[in-house]
């Protein structure tokens, strides 16, 4: 479904990604792990067409992904590392989800208000929270609103950049449960960026290790602990 060939990207002469090849199949949950500054967020943003690439190509369901060209904008949704970045400060939780439904023309116009409310409910946001703006919501609640907004687009592929890093421990555990439920309910493919292996062990079917601007390891989760060979992958395996 998603195919990346020879993707390279540099900033100010420094190569952050060099000749990246990867594929993601429908319904697959892939974890992307690597040190801070290794280019995980850059790769994630290239995949969703938010970042211009220097070489290579990215295709989704057979069509090229290029920044500013929106054919995949509905089918691929992206959640920023800071959940408030996915949200407008002026829109309520309900308004944020409505914006996606109206923007993509999803469902009959007179059903959208109810649909937006039920998406928020399904992610555990009670109706008393629907009229709140991001500043009046906690980090975990903003995360859920951002997820409801992304799911409203009925995507086939969801990219989550460090979805847990801004959350406290209990909210992290709840979010892992929520993502598992969303995945099993929708069959969405996901790329989950993380600097920590623990949540990926619970969520991902496959792990990509990014190191030195390349994919250093691309391995099924169930083989990771016994068979990963790259030193950084081995080091991650020892953290659990
Ligand atoms: P990670 O998400 O793995 O921590 P990033 O993809 O954010 O890494 O960053 C990789 C490298 O690229 C870092 O050195 C970062 O400073 C640099 N970088 C990221 N985005 C930009 C940008 N828009 N302009 C210049 N440098 C950038
Ligand atoms: Mg990052």
From TrEMBL:
Residues 2-237 form the ABC transporter domain. Pfam families: ABC_tran. GO terms for biological process: transmembrane transport. Keywords: ATP-binding, Nucleotide-binding, Transport. It comes from the Bacteria. Transmembrane segments: none annotated. One of its GO terms (molecular function) is ATP hydrolysis activity. The keyword Nucleotide-binding applies. Belongs to the ABC transporter superfamily. This is ABC transporter ATP-binding protein. It comes from Shimia litoralis. The lineage of its organism: Bacteria, Pseudomonadati, Pseudomonadota, Alphaproteobacteria, Rhodobacterales.
């Amino acid at each position: 479904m998603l195919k990346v060939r020879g993707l390279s990207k540099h900033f100010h002469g420094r190569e952050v990604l060099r000749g990246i090849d990867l594929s993601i199949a429908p319904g697959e949950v892939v974890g992307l792990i690597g040190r801070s500054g290794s280019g995980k967020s850059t790769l994630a943003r290239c995949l969703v067409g938010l970042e211009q690439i220097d070489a290579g190509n990215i295709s989704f369901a057979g069509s090229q992904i290029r920044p500013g060209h929106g054919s995949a904008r509905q089918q691929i949704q992206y959640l920023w590392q800071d959940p408030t970045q996915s949200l407008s400060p002026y829109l309520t939780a309900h308004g944020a989800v409505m914006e996606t439904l109206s923007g993509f023309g999803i469902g009959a116009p007179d059903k959208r208000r109810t649909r937006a409310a039920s998406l928020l409910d399904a992610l555990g946001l009670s109706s008393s929270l629907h009229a709140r703006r991001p500043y009046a919501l906690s980090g975990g609640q903003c995360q859920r609103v951002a997820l409801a907004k992304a799911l409203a687009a009925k995507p086939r592929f969801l990219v989550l950049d460090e979805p847990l890093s801004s959350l406290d421990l209990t909210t992290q555990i709840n979010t892992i449960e929520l993502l598992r439920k969303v995945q099993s309910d929708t069959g969405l493919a996901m790329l989950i960026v993380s600097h920590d292996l623990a949540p990926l062990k619970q969520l991902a079917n496959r792990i990509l290790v990014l190191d030195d601007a390349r994919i250093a390891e691309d391995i099924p989760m169930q083989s990771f602990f016994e068979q990963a060979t790259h030193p950084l992958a081995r080091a991650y395996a020892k953290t659990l």
